[in-house]
Amino acid sequence: MLRIAGVQFIGHADRAVNLASAERMVREAAARGARIACLPELFNTMYFCVETKPEYFDWAEPVPGPTTERMGALAGELGIVLIAPVFEKAPDGRYFNTAAVLGPDGGFIGKYRKSSIPFMDASRSPEPRGNEKYYFTPGDLGFPTFDTPFARIGILICYDRHFPEAARVLGLGGAEILFVPTATTRMTRYLWDVELRAHAIANAYYVCGVNKVGVDVGGSKRDHHGNSMIVSPKGEVLAEASATADDIALADVDLSALPALRSLWGYYRDRRPDKYGPVVDLPSGTVHPASATQLAGTR
Amino acid sequence: MLRIAGVQFIGHADRAVNLASAERMVREAAARGARIACLPELFNTMYFCVETKPEYFDWAEPVPGPTTERMGALAGELGIVLIAPVFEKAPDGRYFNTAAVLGPDGGFIGKYRKSSIPFMDASRSPEPRGNEKYYFTPGDLGFPTFDTPFARIGILICYDRHFPEAARVLGLGGAEILFVPTATTRMTRYLWDVELRAHAIANAYYVCGVNKVGVDVGGSKRDHHGNSMIVSPKGEVLAEASATADDIALADVDLSALPALRSLWGYYRDRRPDKYGPVVDLPSGTVHPASATQLAGTR
Questions:
Q1: How wide is the angle at C-alpha A264 spanned by C-alphas A261 and A270, nearest 5°?
Q2: Are B36 and B176 in contact (CB under 8 A)?
Q3: Could you tell me the pLDDT band of residue B285, with boundaries at 50, 70 and 90?
Q4: Which of residues 238-267 of B touch A (CB under 8 A)?
Q5: B283 touches chain A (CB under 8 A)
Q6: Which of B284, B259, B260 is nearest to B274 (CA)?
Q7: Do B279 and A278 make contact, defined as CB atoms within 8 angstroms?
Q8: Which of A:200-229 have CB within 8 Å of B?
Q9: Within a domain: residue A110?
Q10: Which of A180, B135, B173, B287 is deepest in the core (most CB within 10 A)?
Q11: Integer CA distances (angstroms), A206 to A179, A200, A202, A236, B127, in order
């Protein structure tokens, strides 16, 4: 059995406070036995996207860079895999909403860049929404899986979780655990369980959703609902964190059960890729398995 | 508002009894105002796939054919759209698990053939399972939507519902309501709500799941859980039928709300078809939107 953790804490306008909160909570997760821990979306800043201010671009940083190096050192000290989502400034001048994967040797394993970027007109919402399209270029890395020492993992960031194709690509890539660092609010609380559970069931992997919690100190009134959650491949909620406070969702997952589950259910065996063409803007029937290239994974 | 119905009834080894039950229940649904009604998977037979007997192939029939003509006459008399799932024998000698769509003028609108065909080893199940691979060729029609006089609809049959790509292709094709005729058992009851609700949310359409109920009289001990269900695009359960008896799930749906919902949420706008290549067995990034052909639908 492998113990994993979704670590949530109340954010702060002062980035140093977030770093300290994250470090304290990750140490606690490791002390309680977690071997993989995930922080929320944009963990070291408040959720700044409710405003469109050029000065917030100054908070972006290279990945790898200072913050991921500090988190890598922490992962190395604790001997864990740590997922650290930050605001990335790429060398070519673009900005991404990124998650870095740091290994138990302190090294940089890889990164994922949020693929689908939301923007909901604030006038249509009863609570502050994010104009993320102002800040983030849609990710250009596809949906990689990361073969860490403890599990093969995939990452979707917040809004990405509304796209079942994205969750499926990670399953096809052999993901055993999907981590979903998030910064979402009470308005969409009703979607949280059902989407995470559905991804887990359809793809026969574990899902760990990690949400921000509460109102950022010194930030907007946007109220994040917490409820970081670990779900089994049968859609069972194994752990759920507080709706209002710093907390850790912690559960033991059994990766050895996944191959038999995939074999029993056949949800990979009985797919019809030859008929899913419209998912990639091709007519149904034009994509033939005979043209398939080999994919990584455990189908 | 449009009233729709999922019609469930206890099956029988005598096909004439099923036809009579279906006709009685569809008349009741229409009398209660339903303009579209859907019957369960393989509505006019018992669920015979728990056995592998060559003589059951005699129950297959052309589509259109005698049963769909009779159901078409009923739809015409009642002025409704009727979805009638039957065991199809194709002219070329193949057999399909098919659903016919019959119009309010009594005409044959089209058909869908179940795309993903299950087979669970009975020795691994505490209850009778179906070896559907013995009977049914995987459907060759893709995932069509049907532009009926009351709504554009899509159909997935039973096991198909475990495949989020299939549900998405129907959304891309402009489906406003997804009907899911089914014959599933209490063992998988825990999946029913979460999968139907997740499809509704991700694709911003209504979902009407229609399950067989109870044990077929004169058939196997396989116990179908009923609970035919209508779900809103927000994942709300609008209606749920009995777990044990003949019943109708009946609800009013507001198709006029769908375009604004799709616009508000952006789940179609912010998709990344260029990164979903693995869903159709292509590497991520090889399918470029510039090569896209125009799809039907309301993206």
A1: 110
A2: no
A3: low
A4: 264-267
A5: yes
A6: B284
A7: no
A8: 201-202
A9: yes
A10: A180
A11: 9, 6, 11, 10, 26
Residues of A in contact with B142 (CB under 8 A): 275, 277, 284-285
CA A233 remoteness from chain centre: 17
Indicate the Cα dihedral angle A274, A280, A286, A292, nearest 10°: -60
pLDDT class of A285 with cuts at 50, 70, 90: low
Q: Is B15 helix (H, G, I), strand (E, B) or coil?
A: helix
Residues of chain A with Cβ-Cβ distance to B279 below 8 Å are 165, 168-169, 172, 273, 276, 279-280
Selected residues 110-169 of chain A with any CB under 8 Å from a CB in chain B: 115-120, 124, 138-139, 142-143, 159, 162-169
Total domain count for chain A? 1
Measured between CB atoms, which of B115, B163, B277 is closest to A267? B163
Q: Which domain holds residue A66?
A: 2-291
Residues from chain A that touch B201, judged by Cβ atoms under 8 A, are 162, 191, 194-195
Q: Give the Cα separation of B143 and B155 in Å (integer).
A: 8
* Mean pLDDT of the region B222-230: 97
Which domain CATH number covers A102? 3.60.110.10
Amino acid at B283: P
A212 classed as catalytic:
no
Phi, psi of B182 (to 5 degrees): -145, 160
- pLDDT at B286 (0 to 100): 56
Is B125 within the bounds of a domain?
yes
Q: At a CB cut-off of 8 Å and minimum separation 6, what does B133 contact? A: B117, B118, B119
How, if at all, do strands A177-182 and A206-211 pair? parallel
Partner residue opposite B280 with nearest CB, options A194, A266, A279: A279
pLDDT of residue A284: 72
Interchain contact, B197 vs A194, CB within 8 Å: yes
Distance between A81 CA and the closest CA of chain B, angstroms = 26
Cα–Cα distance for residue pair A38/A55, rounded to 1 Å? 28
- Could you give the CA distance from residue A280 to residue A282 in angstroms, rounded to a whole number? 6
Closest partner residue to A279 (CB to CB) among B118, B124, B273 is: B273
Per-residue tokens: B299: 């993206």
Does a structural domain hold residue B179?
Answer: yes
Of the candidates A153, A155, A208, A159, the residue with the CA atom closest to the CA atom of residue A183: A159
CA distance A189 to A193: 8
Choice between B113 and B294, residue whose per-residue pLDDT is larger: B113
The residue annotated as part of the active site, out of B38, B88, B89, B114, is B114
Known catalytic residue: A41? yes
Residue A299 has pLDDT above 70, yes or no: no
For residue A107, pLDDT beyond 80: yes
* Chain B closest-CA separation from residue A50 CA (Å): 16
Residue A299 lies in a domain: no
- CA–CA dist B142, B272 (Å, integer): 21
C-beta neighbour count of A24 within 10 angstroms: 12
Residue with tokens 């179906």: B130
Closest chain A residue to B138 measured between Cα atoms?
A: A272
What is the tens place of the pLDDT at every residue in A27-84?
999 999 999 999 999 999 999 999 999 999 999 999 999 999 999 999 999 999 999 9
